[in-house]
Amino acid sequence: MIALRHSLMEPTNLEHSGKGKHVQRNAVSKRKWKKGVKGWLAALPFVLPGLILVGLFVLYPMLFTIRISLSNYRIVQGQIDFVGLKNYINILTDASGRFWYAYRNNFLYALVTVPLILFGGMVFAYLINNLKRGRTMFKVGFYLPVITSWVIVSLVFTYMFNNSDRGLINYILVDKLHILNDYVPWLLREWSGNAAIWLMGAWKNIGWAMLIFLAALQSIPRDLYEAADLDGAGIWGKFRHITIACLKPTAYYVLVNMIIGSFNVFIQVMLLTEGNPNGRTSVLQYLLYDKAFGQFQFGEASAIGLISAVTIVILTTLLNRMLKLDTVEKGGADA
Amino acid sequence: MKRNLRGKKAGDTIAQVVIWTILAVSLIIFSVPFLFMITNSFEQFSFVLPYPPKLIPTQLDFSAYKYVLSQPFFPTAVKNSVINTSITVVLSVFISTLSAYGFARIEFPGRETLFKIYLFTLMVPSFLNIIPQFIILKGIHIPGTDMNLIGTRAGLILVYVATNVCGHTFFLRNFFRGLPDALSESVIVDGGGHGAIFFKVMLPLSKPAIGTMSIFALQGFWEEYFTAKVLVGANESMMTLPLLLQRLHGQYATRWEWVFAASILALIPVVTLFILFQKKMVIGGLTQGSVKE
């Protein structure tokens, strides 16, 4: 704030000097410019390698994707013809409604798995943190699904959800527990297929949230609890006012990461259901993959990618704003 | 007073037992897919899947492992995965560490804007860029040949490194900002510049953070499937472990023991690494500053 006022005052000082005003202003901007060049020269050796790579393989592709999404792009001929919003219209109005099912499924995936991951991760972290013995065993155990590749876990789940009595799930539910009368072709139906995808997503990511929450729990200063003890706070009071309060930023981090992750779902769909029946279990990334590398419709594929990117940016911005409002209010109350 | 203490101790023990039981039961349920995988890797499948499905191993038959290890494509996949992952991790961590230092400690015009752009790219799904990346690699010709970078290790690694610079820079910048200024000032007093500060102060101090990031990065690249499938999927000599697993599954629909044995072999290195280093990892830094941006 002080710096800001200072810089605001500078021009008025210059005006007093009358004649020399123009010269001095020039000198100031020249000095500023020189300082800027100096800063860039110092920073370049550090920033440049990353900048080149990001520019070439991340930023330029993003702009290029926008162009492809507005074009009829034939990769073999290298031809790219502008077609306006045709690709977008094609996707959104496709008679099979594949895009809308995929879009819906991404949201459902987030809606179902994110709360499970947040809650599960927090509970396991809290329990492990209060453990005196065996912490490492549980930490590694719950983290194991996170390290295991999506390809591997998808293959295991495909077998477990096999549609005959050879699959573990059918065997347990029908032959052992007699909860169901008939074997269910889990991965061939809309809702059971989606449920299998959700279950796997939650199972695989809970350990990640657990690890992050555990680190956050361990960084809460002990004095806070001791001070609360002196004030006569109970276990519940301490949990609510210290533990939960300190975990808030971490929870937000996990939340945002998992929501972004929900729009990156791909391998599990490809290996578990291939979007069957009729794209009812599909997601945007699988649709994009199929459009681009199955049907060579790069324009439509890019349009799908952009729609999902815009969705994520809007979602994260909204979340950010909601959280910022929260902190601003608190800051105001304190002052 | 004494009785009170003893009562508290007994209460503690009961609490510990309860917590332990809850965690143990949860972990057993959590482990079902792994148990299933391990058990079936010791089986001998034929053209039909066995009934009933087994969850607990009844035999230790290693023939599936022997089969997988004897296949010519397995060493190729292991070799590729090891080379790709290690080169990628080293390059991406080194380049990101440099960038992070630039953004954390050197003032230059447009720094905040540029950093915001980096942050923005983190929100955009990575697969969005795969088509242009493919086209760019196709356009880069290897000098002296009529080949381009599609289907090559160099192309894959370039894309891997580039797509991870932003995230890693973000993580390390926060860490560098948290380090005290006094140390770098002492280097400046001795007449050292940014290079000296970077190599003599920042790198040694941020070893735990860089190590943690490297392990996470390594896990990610080791299991990466999508980019590899698109960029080198057509070239068999560039096959990686995730691509191999998927292909094993596709070719032999009922030979699950081979798929699972190969999966377990692919898992061993990353799991070992995590167990070895989990106590040294600094995960707290990962979330710091992520909210305030």
Describe, in plain words, how this protein is organized in 3D.
The complex is a heterodimer of chains A (335) and B (293). With 335 residues, chain A is mainly alpha-helical. Chain A folds into two domains: 2-57; 96-334, MetI-like (MetI-like fold). Chain A is built from 13 helices and two strands, in the order ααββααααααααααα. Chain A has a two-stranded antiparallel sheet with strand order 1-2. The longest helix of chain A has 49 residues, at 21-69. Chain A is flat and about 90 Å long. Mean pLDDT of chain A is 85; it is low at 1-18 and 327-335. The radius of gyration of chain B is 25 Å and the shape is flat. In chain B, 41% of the residues are buried. The model of chain B is unreliable at 289-293 (pLDDT under 50). The chains are: A mainly alpha (335), B mainly alpha (293).
Cα distance, first to last residue of chain A?
Answer: 16 Å
What fraction strand of chain A? under 5%
**How large a portion of the residues of chain B is in β-strands, by DSSP E?**
under 5%
Regarding quaternary structure, what we see is heterodimer
Identify the CATH architecture of the largest domain in chain B. Answer: Orthogonal Bundle
Number of separate helices of chain B: 14
The helix fraction of chain A, in percent, is: over 70%
Tell me, briefly, the overall form of chain A. flat
- List SSEs of chain A in N-to-C order: HHEEHHHHHHHHHHH
Query: How does the overall form of chain B come out from the CA principal axes?
Result: flat
Greatest interface by residues involved: A-B, 99 and 95 residues
State the distance separating the first and last CA atoms of chain B.
51 Å
Quick one: CATH class of the largest domain in chain B?
Answer: Mainly Alpha
SSE string of chain B, helix = H, strand = E?
HHHHHHHHHHHHHH
Described by strand count, sense and barrel closure, the largest sheet of chain B is: none
